[in-house]
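Reading group handout, session on sequence-to-structure problems. Before we discuss, look at one worked example. The prompt was deliberately terse, the way you'd type it at a terminal:

> structure Spermidine/putrescine import binding protein

The input record follows.
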Amino acid sequence: MGLKLLTVPILGTFVLPISIVNLNFQSGDIVLATYQSYISDDIATEASSSYGVQTVYFENDRDILNGFRTGAYDLAIMSSSTLEEAIKKNIVKQIQWDKLPTVKDLLKVEDGNGSSHQTSGSGNTNNQNTRNWEKVFSPIVTQFFKQKPELAQYGLPYFLSYLLFAYRCQNCDKEIKTQENLSWQEKFKKIIEHEEFKNNNPFKLGIIEDEVTILSLSKLASQENNKFNEQNWKVEENKPFNFFDKYKDLSKLGVSSRTRGNSMFLNSDSALMSEMLTKKQLDGVFMYNGDALYSYQEIRNEKEGGEVQDFKILEPTPSLWLLDQIAISSKVSESKENEIYKFLDKLLFEGAIKKTQSDQAQGQQSQNSEAQEKSWAWQNFDYLGYTPTLKDMQETIKSKHEEFKKKKEKSEQQTQSSEKSEDEKEYDDLTIQLLFGRQNEDQCKKPVSNGQPQTTENQQSENTKCKILFESGMTDNQNLDLALAFQRWKNNWF
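And the output record:
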């Protein structure tokens, strides 16, 4: 991930105070709002010259709500939970999937006669959910759309991320490996209480200081023996939810300022957290996989041999996945909207999706990975380091990993050379694990009915293999209660 907080603005890219709503752009300019590290500088520059897209940066994606309300932003990259709030406030447009030429045919659904049809982007939620999402997107994105169809109706997938615990310890996991039946909470405690960190050298623990992230971690901490309880997780609209009590559940992991003292560090700057983990100023951090991947790559690039072997990750169970999406403001004019879709097709899909069988039958060869990697989507993936949403991109990455393993096995039989190939540097085992997680996302292809997993006796065992969770948006009152509860927890009022 390109972890840059302060950079000199380039053409088409502006760092502006959030309070500014009357941005000084041309009337035909398209204003894209995003976090500063969420789009490649090169792509932002090219988008400006080719499509008139001007990029502005914010510090909190909830600022999008005001930007959409006032018409300051035309489109924005936001979390799915923020998108849910924007949908309820009627400030986003429905996605016109048929205006995306690269994917519109792939999304068509065949009827019983072998003919295909495509629902209108302005259709109802049920029609939206009949599209062939699995033809274009990964299984986890498809699960998002099946469980929350409105996300497909109003947002375009941008990237995926999941919460994990990354830590630096050479011998911490030896005892864990001999006790495979341990819950992830028990594994975590064994790591931070390992004898390597006893006495005057306590385990230095970092947590991304974000209200929702820490709430999610607290809810995961309250699960007993990896048994998921829907009532403990879901924050239902118009129903009371004691956020403060839920924050206190984090103490069940041994995580609180009282128990950890000065050895616990909270900060909202993910770049700083990654840097501190890289330099081993922190022994472990609850963070998102893209930030952990950045740390791992930095360590691997700078140091050789056994030093990298002390970098490990632990996934909470169930896995908490987040989906960031691009949404379009309801105030966007039709004339500007057409240019927006040209830009979005280029940014997200063009060149990154392999040609269909019908294309090949007409003499067009499927794009090889080299051509695929020239696409904007792939360039952005190289820059971001987060999990791509496109099925074809994920399959290309995994196939590169498999090819490398075969080459490595062959080379080890012929020579004991310690030199690493470029493929190994990019897609070694831990890189693949950091991108896609240990939870086999193929298991998430299991059938879903009415937005909820099947729970018949014959299907329960299969569904438990897909142990993933998604956070939902909250009301304004709930967000206020959450902020107050977080400050109370942070100030150690318990």
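Points for discussion. First: The mean pLDDT is 80. Second: The chain has two domains: 13-160+323-379, 162-318+428-441+471-490.
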